[in-house]
Amino acid sequence: MIIVVFITTASFTFLQNKPWAVPDAAAKKANPVKADATSNAAGKVLWGQHCASCHGKAGLGDGSKAAQLETTPPDFSKAIVQGQSDGALFFKTSEGRGDMPSFKKKIPDQEDIWNLVNYMRSFKK
Amino acid sequence: MKKAINYTPMIRLIRLPLLMLVFVLAVNELIAQDSTQATAPVIKKKSYVKNTFDGNYIIDNQTVMVPIKGTFEFDIQHRFGTIEHGWKDLAGLFASANMLLGFSYVPIKDLQLGFGATNDRMQVDGNLKYALFKQTKNNKMPLSVTLFANTVMDTRAKSSSLPIINLQDRMSFFSQLIIARKINEKISLQVGPSLSYFNNVEAYYVENKVIQAKTNNAHLAISAAGKFKLTEGLSLIANYDQPITQHPMNNPNPNISLGLDMKTSGHDFQIFVGNYGYILPQNNNVYNHNDFTKSQFLIGFNISRLWNF
After folding, report:
1. Which tens digit of pLDDT belongs to each residue from B50-86?
2. Chain A residues with CB inside 8 Å of B308's CB?
3. Which of A43, A58, B68, B200 lies most in the core, judged by the most C-beta atoms within 10 Å?
4. A102 CB contacts (<8 Å, ≥6 apart)?
5. What's the count of helices (H) and strands (E) in chain B, helices before strands?
6. How many other CB atoms are there within 10 angstroms of residue B158's CB atom?
7. Is the ipTM here above 0.90?
8. What CA–CA distance (Å, rounded) separates A122 from A111?
9. Phi and psi, residue B242, nearest 5°
10. Rounded distance, CA B266 to CA B305, Å?
């Protein structure tokens, strides 16, 4: 029993600490949606509905469900997130991994995920 | 000799709905073609207005919204007793309540199919909802229009006290055309003319053994509802239902309701106060005798859990 718990925990920890590799093609994908007020407003609505409960209202990783997660959500105002390409943020939002769910079915319109990416840029300090 | 079947009345019966369906599909095709011409290679330039309402329900009515394809929804709805007795039954919370458990799925784009069961007269329902038109961001289509229809069956066992003889006596139907517009990011409004139909209505004998129905089989009504977004996840919701048909007796009362809607990624919660004590729409529209002028309000809630497959 102890061995099973150890293996499960260790493998999960390994998965969560493993760098999240984004395929080159996805990382280099250009953002086709202009980051204007309309896009930001649409992104803000989606952020409030799908993301804020874990990532926090301002993307600081302090959402109401953050404490229950195995993976601490990163601070979106810092370079660890802002240093990533739009394509990488689109890929991660769309595909998900571990605690982070995939949103490609819940947000089926690609334009909306790009709107979310544009809104994520507003967290940069 | 085998008698020839006359199909003419059947053709006449289905001709109008078929023509309407062809018209709707043709208009949708024209809109779709227009959108194709205006699209860029990656992102559609023309798209539909989103989040007119936060879910399938606005208090006692369906909203114009049909969830995205592949959405499975589980609904829990509850209506407590009226608040008029105050502390005696804790504003109706300790009184008898009506509940409904429902499931729905969107197998193809813009079409939802559902099933539900309620403790009120042990009724089960099957329903469908189809988005005929959707408001576009470029305002070429200024309104969203959705059709909702259900069939309800009273499944109580036969007894001498119930006027149920045949299967058709158990059936009732409801259909509603829902017309909505998202005015701006904060305000959305909708109206919904509806037709309720009960195969079996109460009646009594008058002189000369003539049977007098207490209510008509068919009942027309109209609802108006609105949402005012307070924050990204919280909205104020209101709903009003007005009976139109005048019956020989037992005319139903209108319904006024007001509540809060809380939306998350996978849930939609609504808590409200209103006059409607049933949950299935034809029961509310035809049999509501709670009167807002006599403060016969009750507390209710709707919970929806959504999964995407």
Report:
1. 899 999 999 999 999 999 999 999 999 999 999 998 9
2. 105-106
3. A43
4. A94, A95, A96
5. 2, 16
6. 10
7. no
8. 17
9. -120, 120
10. 6
